Automatic annotation (TrEMBL):
It comes from Corallococcus coralloides (strain ATCC 25202 / DSM 2259 / NBRC 100086 / M2) (Myxococcus coralloides). GO terms for biological process: base-excision repair. One of its GO terms (molecular function) is phosphoric diester hydrolase activity. Residues 4-248 form the Endonuclease/exonuclease/phosphatase domain. Pfam families: Exo_endo_phos. Belongs to the DNA repair enzymes AP/ExoA family. Keywords: Hydrolase, Magnesium, Manganese, Metal-binding. This is Exodeoxyribonuclease III.
Length: 261
């Protein structure tokens, strides 16, 4: 089975660029989207409920902002969407979906930049990381099968962006953000892509400035993290830079279907 994560930078926008044809060919069983930027009633019917897919959307209170969506071949056994933190829940950033023994967390982690790119949202971003970490601490400790996927808005190591030296003071690669990512890894979470791929040059986000994506001057900020119990079923992890339509590309993991049983 395949689990895919994609920051679509506006679901209505990417729908016009071929989202449904991509979905039909992606060979996916579960697809988590971030930055949907629409309430469910604003989505075209064919996107809101495609044939043979179960869907669920969480919108931010602020119009046209944030939001996550889940497409799955089967209805989740359980689905929740809150961290019990009103200021974070208001931004529509999370879905916790359980399919049998596998829990998939679809997350759109905050950017640390404020309105004027002044780094003012970094404390909020780090608090989000920490609250989610605490929420998942028991499942990790209890050896449960959990995947956390989405736009983490952080490049973890130098190898995860094309120009690390120039971006050390940029949100997304600042020491305090990377240290929080380190904490997840030290606790036992596994970066599935790095587990299978040690080489550089693999990115999931590119600036929309002309020529940047063509030159592959990018950042890897989209991840699928796995508990060790879930990693035992992961056969492959991929980044899909050939898929266009957003400033991000999809990332995925292929798992043994026995992960559900």
């Amino acid at each position: 089975m395949r689990v895919v994560s994609w920051n679509v930078n506006g679901l209505r926008s990417i729908h016009r660029k071929g989202f449904l044809p991509w979905l039909s060919k992606a060979r996916a069983d579960i697809v988590g989207l971030q930055e949907v930027r629409a309430r469910v009633e604003q989505l075209p019917a064919e996107v809101r409920a495609p044939r043979r897919w179960k869907t669920h959307f969480v919108a931010a209170e602020r119009p046209g902002y944030s939001g996550v969506g889940l497409f799955s071949r089967h209805e989740p056994d359980d689905l929740t969407t809150t961290l019990d933190a009103p200021e974070m829940d208001a931004e529509g950033r999370l879905q916790f979906a359980r399919f049998g023994k596998l829990t998939v967390v679809n997350g759109y982690f905050p950017n640390g930049n404020g309105k004027d790119r002044d780094l003012s949202r970094i404390p909020f971003k780090l608090d989000f990381y920490r609250r989610l970490f605490a929420r998942l601490e028991k499942p990790l400790r209890d050896n449960q099968r959990v995947l956390v996927m989405g736009d983490f808005n952080t490049a973890h190591q130098d190898i995860d962006l094309a120009r690390p030296r120039e971006n050390r003071e940029t949100s997304g690669f600042r020491p305090e953000e990377r240290a929080e990512f380190d904490r997840w890894i030290r606790a036992g979470w596994v970066d599935t892509f790095r587990h299978f791929n040690a080489a550089g040059g693999h990115y999931s986000w590119w600036s929309q400035r002309a020529g940047v994506r063509e030159k592959n001057i990018g950042w890897r900020i989209d991840y699928v993290l796995a508990t060790p119990a879930a990693l035992a079923f992961v056969k492959k992890a991929s980044v899909h830079p050939d898929v266009h339509g957003s400033d991000h590309c999809p990332v995925s993991v292929d798992l043994d279907p026995a992960v559900l049983a």
